[in-house]
Amino acid sequence: MKVLLTGATGQLGQALIATKPPGVELIATSRSGGAGLLALDLATPEACRAAVHAHCPDWVLNAGAYTAVDRAESEPALAQAVNADAPAACAEALAATGGRLLQVSTDFVFNGAQGSPYRPEQDVDPLGAYGASKAAGEAAALQLPGARVLRTGWVHGPVGHNCCLTMLRLHRERQQLGVVADQVGCPTSTATLSAACWRAIGVGLEPAAEAALPRILHWSDAGVASWYDFAVAIGELGVVAGLLERAARVLPISTADYPTPARRPSYSLLDCTTSRAALGMEPLHWRAALAQVLSDASPTLSPSRQAA
To answer: What is the CATH number of the domain that holds 114?
Structure first.
C-alpha cells in the first residue's frame, strides 16, 4: 500500500510516521520539505494535484491543516485554501488516479449547543472560520467515492505545538494559572489517533470489515474533561513523570473571562461508539493516554534538560 502523507512535521504527522505499519510505502510531505520529506504546500491546490498524479498513491492521508483557530478569523482565505481547497484538489486528482482519501477533521465542525455527544451522521454547524473551512474540506473529500473523514479533537502529543506542552511550560513558569472550565470535550493523544488513522485506511482490518467502515468516523480517547480538568491533570501527572518539580495552582475561569477572536464550541464531545466498534479498537481513558504522552516526552522535557 502506498500512502501520501501531508503534514508530516506536525504532531500527528510525526506520530503517523513513527507508527507506520509494515507493508506501507510512505511518501511523507510537509510545506517546506526537509530531510526525507517532499515539499508540498497545501495552500496551493495545483501542487496537491501534481503530487497525487506524480506518485499515484493508494491513499492520501491528509493530516496537514491550518489549525490557528483564532488567526483564521483574520485569515479566512488561507484557512479555506489549506483546509478545504487542498482536500478538494486531492480528491479531484485521486478520482483520476484511482486512489482514496482519508481527511482528518475536527470537533469544531459542530456548534457545541446540544450538550450531548455528537454522532458522525449529524449535520455540521461550525461557529467560526476554522470550523467552516474544515467542514468544507469534509464535504470536498466525500465527493470522492471511497473517501473517509475521521473527526477528532483536543489533540496533544509529546512533540509539536499543543495545549499539553504549553501547559507544562506554564506550570513550570508560574505559581497560579486560570484555565477555562466551561468548555467540555475529550483530550486525544496522537498515539491513539495515529492508530485510528491507520485502521481507518484498512491497515490490520479484514477486507470485509474495511469495506464496511462508515465514511465518517469519530475518534477520541475515552472520558470527558474541561480544559481546567486537563490542566490540573497535566500538573499532577507532570510531577509524577518527573517533568515538573511542583504543579501550579489551577483556578477555573469562564470563557467570558478569557475572550478570544474565535468562538469555540462549549461542548464538543464526539460519540465514538460506532466508530470504535467498526475500527475494532478499544478506547484508552484520556488520563491514561496523557500519562503515556508525558512519559514519552520526559527525555526532552525534564526540568534538568530545560535548565541546561
So the answer is: 3.40.50.720
Q: What is the CA radius of gyration of the chain?
A: 19
**Tens digits of residue pLDDT in 152-169:** 999 999 998 899 999 999
For residue 156, the enclosing domain spans 2-161+187-220+270-283
b or e along 41-54 (b: 16 or more beta carbons within 10 Å of the residue's beta carbon)?
Answer: bbbbbebbbebbee
Q: Which of 66, 130, 228, 267 does the annotation list as catalytic?
A: 130
Alpha helical stretches, state H, 44-182: 45-55, 76-80, 86-97, 129-141, 163-173
Is residue 130 annotated as part of the catalytic site, yes or no? yes
Q: Minimal CA–CA distance to 61: which of 113, 24, 111?
A: 24
pTM over 0.90: yes
Q: Alpha carbon 143 to chain centroid distance? A: 22
Tell me what pLDDT residue 190 has: 97
The letter for the amino acid at 294 is L
